[in-house]
Design goal:
Length: 147
């Protein structure tokens, strides 16, 4: 069962001790979605809803709007209610952080613009509202893994 964008964003921020900006969180959520889809052969997405192809890479609109008031500053805990691990999904979020969490915001943007990736396939300059299908995110996972 997928979780909401808000829960995924909150848990990711908790795991990074509230140091993530919205831009960084968006890209890490995208990579976590890719890992979840890849590990489940597309059957178990991390989050409900679809990522969209925005100018700076994949964005989960619900999570973006939850945290946009922070601009380029770290997201703060006060905008969320509830807390704690989400056992089914923590390993996926932790894996995304292990693989991509060392990158800066610009590094995450560059990584999400991977040639042959799902964002590149759907991006149209200046456009918003263009969904990135989970099937294409899964295909990117497989291409990155060499499958």
């Amino acid at each position: 069962m997928a979780m909401t964008a808000t829960k995924a964003l909150r848990r990711l921020c908790e795991l990074k001790q509230w140091t993530l900006t919205n831009l960084e969180a968006q890209k890490l959520l995208y990579f976590a979605q890719m890992i979840a889809l890849g590990q489940s052969d597309g059957k178990k997405p991390l989050v409900d809803g679809h990522f969209q192809a925005w100018d700076l890479g994949p964005v989960l609109p619900g999570a973006y709007h939850d945290a946009k008031l922070f601009g380029n500053r770290p997201i703060k805990k006060f905008i969320f209610s509830g807390s704690g691990p989400i056992p089914m999904w923590d390993p996926v979020l932790e894996e995304a952080l292990e693989q991509f969490g060392h990158l800066t915001g610009s590094g995450l943007v560059a990584e999400s613009h991977w040639i042959g990736g799902a964002w590149v396939k759907h991006y149209r300059p200046g456009a918003r509202g263009i969904d990135i299908p989970n099937a294409d995110i899964l295909a990117e996972y497989r291409a990155r893994a060499g499958n």
